[in-house]
Amino acid sequence: MERPTSSSSSDDDDDRQNLIEQNDRKLPTPRSTTTTFHIADDDIDDSNHRHHQQLRRRFTSLKLNDLFNKRSFVLFAIFLPLFVLILFFTTDIKALLFSTSVSASPFGSVSDKLRESELRALYLLNQQQLGLFNLWNQTLPNPNSTSNQSNSPQIPLLEDFKSAVLRQISINKDIQQVLLSPHRSGNSTESDFRDFGDFENPSLGDRCGILDQKFAQRRTIEWKPNASKYLFAICVSGQMSNHLICLEKHMFFAALLNRVLVIPSAKVDYQYSRVLDIEHINKCLGRKVVVTFEELAEAKKNHVHVDKFICYFSHPTPCYVDEEHLKKLKGFGVSLSKPEPAWVEDAKKPSKRTVQDVQSKFSTSDDVIAIGDVFFADLEQDWVMQPRGPLAHKCKTLIEPSRLIMLTAQRFIQTFLGKNFIALHFRRHGFLKFCNNKQRSCFYPIPQAADCITRVAERANAPVVYLSTDAAESETGLLQSLVVVNGKAVPLVKRPARNSAEKWDALLYRHGIEGDSQVEAMLDKTICAMSSVFIGASGSTFTEDILRLRKDWGSASLCDEYLCQGEDPNFIAENE
């Protein structure tokens, strides 16, 4: 076979052929028969050997820079930097890098925040508009009503008007904060936005400051009893709160008649020694003005006889004492003279009486007298109801919780509430029928009650509400969900069940009075009386006793009020 003219092929052609084969990753093999070289049969072994050596030399001598000497790679090297420059100047690299992370942010974009704030501000503006319209309508007389119509709107009191205006100011502040919130950065502070207005304007004063009770202007009398003359207290109406009011009025009667007051026995009445410090009263007066029944029995050698039973009330029963209670007294060893009414007086419609009336009708030389239950007595009401009472003494109040209960209340407040808290007496059990029988019902639907509580919470700026209630969990749960200020729920805190890990009630436990219903009721009263602001239940003597303590202690607030004071329930059920 004739050898081809391989010598006429240049080195460039051979290199190109080898380069193409290398790039295609096709290495020549000894078995290949499809080649451009035609070798004679007799020279094949020698020719193959020389061919392989030539390929190795050329392949090992190939350099990287030989590649770039070629025209195609030179063009690529020219256009690559140019492409990078164009890409750099025409693309926002920072936006490209961070667009994914920003869009995935849980806080959303600034525009989303702005939209959300604007919608919230529009809602608050609408609420403010409704509030202002309501205030405007309350100040306008109804042209179609007459002065004799009971349902004609009344011009609001100054305090109610101030409260409504302050509520609108509070809403205005909320709107400002909502609109400013998207513009706040991590380094900005509240002071950076003071140019937009300061809600805590000094001209507004302290919205819920302490009420000045003017103690220096009290009208008082001295209680200087004859040590051998006694007034035997009898209290039967209602529960503990009613009995405490009855005892307080008995103290006034005893002072007017110059007698020592005898506290009823636990065998016929409540165990007062568990909730009151009887000796505290004597210390405040500086003399012996009250004694227990046991002390009287000891002085009378266990023969206690009521020498004269002069009834303050003649109707519906003499002395307003039922037969069952009289039997208890007699069974306990107390002998009673026949009840004699001092005048015609109905407990359901009591007449106003004066000091002179009492002294003229009840003064006697007998050692032990009784006048019956005087809870409903209307005697010098302004004098009796003044802060710290009508009697001259050196304490804040005469009838107050025992030392154990006072300390327990303080420990509970330190544990759960702190200095600034609202107390709410939310009476519900048996209150629906009682309130609906009154001329103006005092039983409010839960949503309406929640709105009234929220208004007080806004004014008081208190973070928590102490809840003293007999309401069911279904009612308190709904109430809790609806009491919201500035988008945040205001916690309603009740006293928890006994827990050995908690030490706030350890004193009651150590003295064996934990779980006593009267002790717990007095503890509730004490906590409420120590609050910054108190919301009471209209018509409840439990509330009235709390208000008495707050007045006497000087803790009454300008924001104290009855629940939904001045409002009628927005729905009232029919009577049976």
From TrEMBL:
Entry's Gene Ontology molecular function annotations: peptide-O-fucosyltransferase activity
Region of interest: Disordered: 1-33
Organism: Prunus dulcis
Name recorded for this polypeptide: GDP-fucose protein O-fucosyltransferase 2
UniProt keywords, alphabetically: Carbohydrate metabolism, Endoplasmic reticulum, Fucose metabolism, Glycoprotein, Glycosyltransferase, Membrane, Transferase, Transmembrane, Transmembrane helix
Keyword Glycoprotein: yes
GO biological process terms held by the UniProt record: fucose metabolic process
UniProt xrefs under PANTHER family: GDP-FUCOSE PROTEIN O-FUCOSYLTRANSFERASE 2
Transmembrane regions: 73-91
InterPro entries given in the database record: GDP-Fuc_O-FucTrfase (IPR019378), OFUT2-like (IPR045130)
Family: Belongs to the glycosyltransferase GT106 family. Belongs to the glycosyltransferase 68 family.
Pfam family, one: O-FucT
